[in-house]
Amino acid sequence: MKTELLDHVESKSLKEKVTHFEIGDIVDVHCKIVEGDxxxxxxxxxxxxxxxxxxxxxMFTVRRIVNNxxxxxIFPIHCPNVVDxxxxxxxxxxxxxxYFLRKRSGxxxxxxxxxxxxxxxx
Length: 122
Description:
The protein is mostly beta strands.
């Protein structure tokens, strides 16, 4: 009963259209940044290493390497400052959380690419 009420109230804050992406995908996250009276869009691209929560509280973590230093950002999916999420490449994983990538560097960070399975109709 209580969760049904919360879901009904939270449904007004949810985005209608959310891009489908999974753990291990490389995504470009377009964020709105306000500096004084100006607004601009900044792109943060990296690998999705985790996804958690549900409803308004749903979040995902994106990791990338900058100057040999790992950088992670946590984004709420339904936040109005997250303008767009564009998947670039899908990675093949067997885990729900890719925290083991934190210990790796260089080529060890790369994941195998998931190939889409299309059925050939003759």
